[in-house]
Amino acid sequence: MTFPSPETRNPVLLPDGSYHQGTVFLNAVVHHPRLEIGNYTYASAHEPPEDWAAHLAPYLYDFSPETLRIGKFCQFADGVTFITASANHRYDGFSTFPFMVFNGGGSDAPSMPSPGRDTIIGNDVWIGQGAKILPGARIGNGVIVAAGAVVSGNIPDYAIVRGNPAGVSRMRFDDDTIAALLEIAWWDWDIARIVAHEADIVGADLSKLKAAN
C-alpha cells in the first residue's frame, strides 16, 4: 500500500474499507494565515470539528500578530489545545480587564497587551490527550508531552514533559544520540526513504540511520 499524500484529509483506512473521520492530516484541512504546519502532521478527535484550526488554536485569529508554527510528523491526540498569544490580557497594571474588546479600541488602546511571541513546535512531537500549550512555548524536535500537561517556555529536543506546570520528566536519549538524530533529521527525507527505514526509525537503530543519511 502506498503511503498517503500529506494532502490526504483522512489518511487512516479502517478494516471495513472506510476512512477514519476523526483523524486528519492537518495540511489538508487547515488554511489559516497565521498557522504553518509541516507535512504528515496529524490530529485526532473523537468528535471531528468542522474547523480544525479553531479547534486546535481557538485564540489564533486571522489578524493575530503571532504565528503558530508546527513541524512535520507531529501527532496530536484528542483535546490538545494551543493557547496562542492573542489570548493574553495585559497584566502589568492594576487591572487585567480588556476594555478595548468592548469599546472598539484599536491596537494602540491602553488595555491592549503587547504582541506575544510565536509558538513553535518541532518535528516528530507527540502531544497527549488534553494537553495545553501556552503562548510562546518553544517545543523541540522529538518531544513527548504527557496527557493533561500544561506546557510553557522552552522544551529541549527529545525531552518527555508532564504535569502542571509541565517539567522535564526525563530525556529520551543521551546527548550524543540526540545530536546524531538532529543531524540526520529523518523527517526531511522523502517519504519513500522514510518508509523504507521505518523499522530503523521506530526501532532506534542509529547505526542504520547514519548509514542511510
How would you sum up this structure, described in words?
The protein has two domains: 23-172, UDP N-Acetylglucosamine Acyltransferase, domain 1, CATH 2.160.10.10; 174-213, no CATH class. Strand 14 (159-162) and strand 15 (167-171) form a beta hairpin. The protein is an alpha/beta fold. The longest helix has 10 residues, at 175-184. Helix content is 20%, strand content 19%. The chain has seven helices and 15 strands.
What's a quick, concise take on this entry?
The protein has 213 residues and is an alpha/beta fold.
Draw up the topology in text.
Blueprint: E1 23-25, H1 26-29, E2 35-37, E3 42-44, H2 52-56, E4 68-70, E5 75-76, E6 81-82, H3 99-103, E7 119-121, E8 126-127, E9 132-133, E10 138-139, E11 144-145, E12 150-151, E13 154-155, E14 159-162, E15 167-171, H4 175-184, H5 191-196, H6 198-202, H7 206-212
Parallel strand pairs: 2-4, 3-5, 4-7, 5-8, 6-9, 7-10, 8-11, 9-12, 10-13, 11-14
Antiparallel strand pairs: 1-3, 14-15
Biggest beta sheet attributes: 7 strands, mixed
Secondary-structure-derived class: alpha/beta
Assign the CATH architecture of the largest domain: 3 Solenoid
Total of helices: 7
Strand content: 15-25%
Distance between the termini: 24 Å
Q: What order do the strands of the largest sheet run in, or round the barrel if closed?
A: 1-3-5-8-11-14-15
* Total of domains: 2
Average pLDDT figure: 95
Classified by CATH, the class of the largest domain is Mainly Beta
Element string (H = helix, E = strand): EHEEHEEEHEEEEEEEEEHHHH
CATH topology type of the largest domain: UDP N-Acetylglucosamine Acyltransferase, domain 1
Instruction: Report the uncertain regions.
Output: none
How many individual β-strands? 15
Helix content: 10-25%
**What sort of overall outline do the alpha carbons produce when their principal axes are compared?**
globular
Radius of gyration: 19 Å
CATH superfamily of the largest domain: Hexapeptide repeat proteins
